[in-house]
Amino acid sequence: MWNAIFGSATPVNDAANEVTFTINGKTYKAGNGLPEDTSLNTFIRDVASLKGTKFMCAEGGCGACIVSATVEHPVSKERETKAVNSCLVPVFSCHGWEITTIEGIGNRMKGYHQTQAQLAKFNGTQCGYCSPGMVMNMYNLLEGGHAPTMAQIENSFGGNLCRCTGYRPILDAFKALASDATPELKASCVDIEEVYKICKKTGERCSGKCSIPADLPKSVALSTGGANWRKVNSLAELRDALVNVGETPYKLVAGNTAEGVYKSEGIKEYIDVKGVPELRSIDKKPGAITLGGNVTLTEAMNFFASVSENEFKYVNQLATHIDWIANVPVRNAGTLAGNLSIKHAHHEFPSDIFTTFETVGAKLNIMDAVGDVKTVTLADYLVLDMNRKFILSIELSKKGENHRFRSFKITPRAQNAHAYVNAGFCFEFEDTKAWKVVGQPRIVFGGIAPSFTHASNIESYLTGKNLLDSAAISGAFAELGRQLNPDRVLPDATAEYRKNLAQALFYKFLLGLDPSKVSDSQKSGGTNLERPLSTGKQDFDTDKSLYPLNEPIPKIEALAQCSGEAEFVNDIPSVPGEVHAAFVLSTQATGTIANIDPTEALAMPGVVGFFKHTDMVHYNTFTPPDFGYADQEEIFCSGNVKYAGQALGLVVAETRELALKAADKVKVEYKNSTITKPVISMSEVLQNAGSRIHPDDKEEENEDETASHRTKAAKIIKGDFEIPKQYHLTMENQSCLVLPKEDDSFDVFSTTQWIDLGQAVVARCLDIKASKVNMSVRRLGGGYGAKITRPSQLAGACAVASQKLNRAVRMVMPMTANMELAGKRFGLRNEYEVGVDEKGKIEYLQAKFFQDSGCNLNDSPLRSTREHFNNCYDSTKFKVESQQIRTDTASNTWCRAPGTTEGVAFIEEIMERIAGETKLDPLAVRLANLHNNDNPIAEMIAELKRISDFDARRAKVNEFNAANRWKKRGMSLVPMQYPFDFWGNHPAIVSIYQSDGSVAISHGGIEMGQGMNTKVAQVAAHILGVPLDSISVKPSNTLTSANAIVTGGSLGSEAVSYATMQCCKELLKRLQPIKDKMPNASWLELIKNAHGKQIDLVATYMFTPKDNVKRYNIWGAAIAEVEVDILTGEKQILRVDLLEDAGQSMSPMVDIGQIEGAFVMGMGYWLTEELIHDPTTGRLLNTRTWNYKVPGAKDIPADFRVTFRKNAKNPDGVLQSKATGEPPLNLSIVVLFAVSDALRSARKDAAGDDKYHQLKPPATAEHIFLAGLADPKDFKL
Fold first, then answer.
1. Residues in domain FAD-binding PCMH-type (predicted)?
2. For labelling, which of 123, 325, 353, 387 has a CA lying 20 to 30 Å from the CA of 781?
3. CA distance readout (Å), 1064 to 28, 430, 501, 1022, 1054
4. Does residue 895 have a known ligand-binding role?
5. Residue 204 and residue 216: Cα distance in Å, rounded?
C-alpha cells in the first residue's frame, strides 16, 4: 500500500486507508471521497450536518468555529481535551480524535450544559452567531476537572470576537463559574439540574464521548485523488515519508495554524506528524531544557510557567510572552516548530517564538531524512535549506543569576494580534550594582525588516560597558538609531513608528532593569500597562406591576443561540442538486473590462457555470430608483470598473470551496487601468476639485451678519477634523440561498434587513411578479446597516443562476471578499471656522462637511450628520454646508448610528478645540454652549459627575500625570442629544390558536441581535395578559409583512412593538363582549368560546408615523478614563460611566446590552479599526481578522458602568420607552478625547506647552505614539 501511494519500498501493514474519529460520540470516517484540504469545520457542517458550529474568518481569528477535541498525547498516552479552531484543523489530521460540538454538550432535548444556560441567563447573546464558539471555549476551560480563576477565564477569550454585546455580559456569565467568583456572581449562577443520557453501549451514564477503539491503527495512508495523506507515529516513519516524497510538494502537518496567516497551495503530500513521541517530549536536566519541535505553544507556556530553578528562571518570561501569541485554541494546536517554520518560509513574519528564543540563545536540532542531526542557531536556521528536514527539538541552556532577560510585544489591541514590533533583550552582567555587561548581549527585534534580526552594532557597542551609565545609554541609542531601517509594506505600520518604537522598547528594558537607579518620574516607563480584572455595573429601575413588560429578562432566543439550535441562513439544510456560488471581483479600481475568460474555471471538475452582466438580460441593478436610490449600482460590472472589489461575475460549483477556488481561476483583462490612478481619499479630490464633488445642502449665509459676529468674537478658530471609515464586521458574512419552486416561483433566504427591496430586485432580475418571490428571514448574525442595500446584490445574482440552472444556489461570502465588495461607514471631513467669547461660547460657526460616498451617492446619511451636529448646543448661530465626494472605492453604506455618530463627533471636536485654544475646561465650554429648550443635559451631567466621583478622579489623574513621565492618564466627558424620528411602515400580525390559547406573531422587522422579538413578546404578553412562554415569534416574510420598510435606525423594535400592541388591543376588543358575559373564564375558555362564535382571532396592523407617537429626544452623557503608555502607544480604558435616558425600558437587560455593545463598537471605530488601500490598484489591503482589528474581550472598559436615567418615562414613544440601539455609539468618541487628554500632558512634558493637538482617529498605537512625542533624546534615567 505504501508503495502504491508514496512509492516506498518499506511496507507498513497496520496503516489505515481512512481516518476515523467521533463527533459527539458517533463514529465517522473520512477517506478518498473528500478533497485533501477539507477542514474539520466543513466536515462537521456539510457531512455530519451539525450546523451549530459556525465559521466566519476561516483563519482562527474569530472563534465562531471552536469545538472540543479529546486526543491521545503521544508521550503520556493520556487523552487530553482542548479547544481547537475547526476551520484550521484538516479533517484528515483528526485520526483517533473525539470531537465534541455545541450540539454534543446540551440542547433542548437532553438539557443544557451549565455554560449554555449561564450565558443565556446573563444575556450574553445578541445576534447569537458567536455564542456557540463562546460556549465551547468556556466548556473546554472547565474540562480540566477544576474551575479556572476569573483572571484565567477573562484571559482566555482573546480568540472569540463579538460585535454585538461588548463582551461584558459574556465575561460575567463565565466568571460566575470561576473558583474565585465573587459571592454576587456565584449567587447568580444558573440553578440547573445536570441532565444525563444513558450510553447505549454500557448502560451507564454517558460522558458525551465515546472512546476510540483500542485496535484502531495508529498510522494512516490514504489518497484523495488530488493529494496523499500519511499519519506517522515514529521518527522512522517520518524519515521514511520524507525519503519517499521525492521532489513532490509536501507539507508537515501538526497544528496547521499557519493556514490562518499564509494559505498553502499546490501541496501533493501531507504528512501528519502530531503522533511522533520524540517531537512532543519535554526534558529538563540540570544544564538544559529540551523541547520537542511539536510541543504546542500551550504546553510550552505551561511548562515554562512551572519552572522554578534559578538557572532557568528566565523561561518564566517566555511563558508570559507566549500568552501574548494568538489565542487559546491556536496555542492549543500550534507548535513551536510550526511557528518557526512560518518565519523560515516568510521572513517578514514577526514570529514571537523566533524573536524570544533567538534572544535567549536557543539552539535547534535539525534532523534530515536519513537521521542525521545538525544543531544550528535560530538565525542560521532562517537560511538553512529545510527540504526533507524537520525541527527535532529545541534546546535552552541554563543562565547565571546575573543574567537578565525581558521581551516585549506591541500590538494593535490587547490580545490576538501580531506585533507591530516585538523585541527581546538578554544581558549578562558582572554584577547587579554597576551593571557592567559581560560578553556580547543579545538584542533582537521582529517587525523591522525581513532580513533584520540582531541589532549587532549595538550588541558590540555595549560589550564591556556599564549599561546604566548615561554616556553608554546615549551612545547606544545613537547606534541603534543608525542601524534600524524598517521597510514599509502596506498595510503594516509606518517605518517611523516601528523604528522609534524599537528604540523605546530598549529604553523600557533599561528602565526596568534597576528601578533604584531611575528617577521617580521615569519609573513608570519600565513597566507594561497592567489591566485589572474587568467589572461592570448596571443601574436601572423596573416596575413589577408591568411584568413581563419592563422585566429584565434574557432574550427569548438565548438558549437556542447558546446551544447552536438557532438557525441562520447558511444553517438551512442543503437540498438535492444544490450548488454554491462565489463572486469574481475586480482587482483594480479603474479601467474598463476588456475580457473575462472563465475557461480554466469551467474546466475544473464540479464547476457548473459562470454568469456575468450579459446574463442579466432583464435587470442588472440592486439599487432601483423607485426605492430612493440616486445611482443604479450594477449587480455585475458591464464594462467600466468603479472600484477594486466590484463584482464582475459569478462562478457556480458543486461545493463552496470549489466555487471559491474556481473564482480565482477566472482571468480578467483590463484596459486603460494604468492611465488613471485611483482616487482613494477625500484629500485627493479636494486638492483637484472637479466633477467628483457633489453639493448636498447649504444654509444661506448672511455675510453682514457673519462679519458682525466676527467682530464680537474674542477669538476666531479655524480647523478641520477628518474621521475614517469603519467595516461593520458582522459575524455572519453576507449570505443567500435561492430555491426554484413550483409555478416558477422562488424561495429566497437572504441575510437582509430589507426584505421588500430583496423581493423587488429578485423579481426584476428574473422578470417575474413580486408575488412569485417568497422571502423569509428568521434572524441575522449581526446587521449594523451592512445588510440593508448590499444583500440584494447577492440575491439578484443567485436568483439568475438558480433560474438558468433550475437548481438551488447558495452563496456564503468569505470575509475577504465581503470586505472588498461592500462599502463601509462613510468617511467624513469637517472644515470650519468658529468665533467664541471669553467663556468659550460660540458667537458664530461655519462648517463645511465633505462625505466620502465611495463610487456612488447612495445610502447617504448626511442629513443626519447635519442634524446631529447641533447635538445639545445652541445652534442658532451655526451655518452648515455639506457635499458628497466620489472616490474609486466601494459605495459606502449605512453603519450603526450612521451620520449621527459623525455629526456628534464633529461638534464635540470643535468643543475640544475651543477649550484647547482658549485654555478653558472642556466641560465648561460645553456647558456654556448648551441650548435652553427643555434641555436636561446640565442636570444629567451633574448627576453623572456625582455618581462617577468625577471631580476626585480628575484630581487623581492630574496628580498621576504630574508624577509620571511615560505613563499618562486622561479623562473626558461628552453629552448627547439624539433626536429620534418615526418613519416607514412596519406591519405585524398576531394569531391566537383556539386549541390551546397560545399566540404567534410575525412582524415586518428583522431580528439581528437587538432583541426585537423579545420586546415584541413582552408587549404581547403584557397587553393580552398571558404568560410569556405562550408567545411564539415567527420569521419575517414577504407574505405577512409585505411592503415592510427596512429595519434600521433603532426604530424597528419600537415600531413593530407598537404594531403588535395594536393587534393585541384589537383582539381584546373582539373578545370583550364574550369576556363581559364570562367574567371568570380562563384565557383558554375565552378563546374557545370566541372561536365557537366565529370571532376572528387573527389581527393585523401596520405602524406608520401617523400613529400616536411623536418625535422625541434621547439624552445621554459618558465619562471615560484611560491610561496610555507613551513609550509604546498602547492604551487601556480604565473606566467608563454612561448615563442614558432610556425612557421606561420595555426590556432592561436587552437595552443594557444594546448600550454596551454600541459603545464598544464605537470604541473600535475611534481606537483600533483602520482601513488601508493599495494606492496603485485601489484594492483594500486589510480584509481579514489578521489585520483588521475590532475590540476584543480585554479591550473593553476595565470598569464599565451603565445607568438609566431615573423617572424618565417617555410620553411620546411606545409604551413610555425610548430607542437604545444606536445612540450610545455617538457617545463613544469620549474615549478618543480621553486619550487626547492624556497625550496633552505627555506633549507638555516633551515640548513645554499644552497647546491643542488633534489626535488622528483611529487612535491606534502608532498614532498615539507619534502624538506623544517620545524621542530617544529624552530617554534618560
1. 222-401
2. 325
3. 50, 84, 63, 10, 15
4. no
5. 24
Mean pLDDT, the chain, rounded, equals 94
Q: In one letter, which amino acid is 929? A: N
896 is in an annotated binding site: yes
User: What does the block give as the cell for 948?
Assistant: 462617577
Residue 776 β-bridge partners:
1037
pLDDT of residue 234: 96
Helical spans, DSSP H, in 727-852: 755-766, 791-805, 815-821
Other beta carbons less than 10 A from residue 745's beta carbon: 16
Low-confidence ranges of the chain (pLDDT < 50): 1-12, 193-206
State the CB neighbour count (10 A cutoff) for residue 1247: 12
CB contact at 8 A, 767 and 618: yes
**Is residue 127 part of an annotated ligand binding site?**
yes
Confirm or deny that 1049 is annotated as ligand binding: yes
Q: Tens digit of pLDDT for each residue in 118-131? A: 999 999 999 999 99
Count of residues making up the chain? 1277
Helix (H) or strand (E) holding 1138: strand 1131-1140
Q: C-alpha cell of 383?
A: 537560511
Active centre residues (catalytic):
1222
pLDDT of residue 390: 97
Cα–Cα dist 851/694, whole Å: 10
The answer to whether 855 is annotated as binding is: no
β-pairing, 746-750 vs 773-777, is parallel
Q: Residue 158: what pLDDT?
A: 97
Q: Is 62 annotated as a binding residue?
A: yes
Q: How many CA atoms lie within 13 A of 195 on its CB side?
A: 15
Pairing state between β 220-223 and 228-231? antiparallel
For 544, which DSSP code?
Answer: G
**Whether the predicted model's global pTM rises above the 0.85 cut:** yes
pLDDT on residue 701: 64
Q: Nearest-CA neighbor of 632 among 641, 622, 642?
A: 622
Residue 211: the pLDDT is: 63
Distance CA 1158, CA 1171 (A): 20
CA–CA distance, 1134 with 1154 (Å, rounded to integer): 21
What is residue 144's predicted lDDT score, i.e. its pLDDT? 73
Is 164 within any annotated ligand binding site?
yes
Q: Give how far the C-alpha of residue 533 lies from the chain's centroid of Cα atoms, to the nearest Å.
A: 21
- Report the pLDDT value the prediction gives residue 189, as an integer from 0 to 100: 86
Q: Hey, what's the cell of 357? A: 528564543
Cell of 198: 444513558
Helix (H, G, I), strand (E, B) or coil at 5: helix
To the question of whether residue 798 is assigned a binding role by annotation, the answer is no
Return the pLDDT at 1251: 86
Residues β-bridged to residue 719: 832
| φ, ψ dihedrals at 367, nearest 5° | -105, 140
Distance, in Å, from the CA atom of 83 to the CA atom of 931, rounded to the nearest integer, reads 55
Which pLDDT score, from 0 to 100, does residue 186 have?
86
Query: Could you give the CA distance from residue 1125 to residue 988 in angstroms, rounded to a whole number?
Result: 53
C-beta contacts of 203-208 below 8 A and 24+ residues apart? 206/25, 208/24, 208/25, 208/100, 208/104, 208/105
d(CA 1205, CA 1209) in angstroms, rounded, equals: 9
Q: Within 13 A of 943's CA, how many CA atoms are on the CB side?
A: 18
How far apart CA 980 and CA 978 sit, in angstroms, is: 6
Please tell me the chain's helix, strand, coil percentages from 3-state DSSP, rounded to the nearest 5: 35, 20, 45
Cβ–Cβ < 8 Å for 480, 444:
no
CA 1236, 1239, 1242: angle at the middle one, nearest 5?
Answer: 165
What are the strands of the beta sheet with 66-72, ordered from one edge?
26-30, 19-23, 98-100, 66-72, 79-85
- Cell 537521521 sits at which residue? 371
C-beta neighbour count of 342 within 10 angstroms: 18
For residue 1071, give every residue at least 6 positions away whose Cβ sits within 8 Å of its Cβ, in sequence order, or none.
1086, 1087, 1090, 1095
User: Any alpha helices (H) in 7-113, and if so which ranges?
Assistant: 40-42, 102-105
What is the H or E stretch that residue 363 is in?
strand 363-368
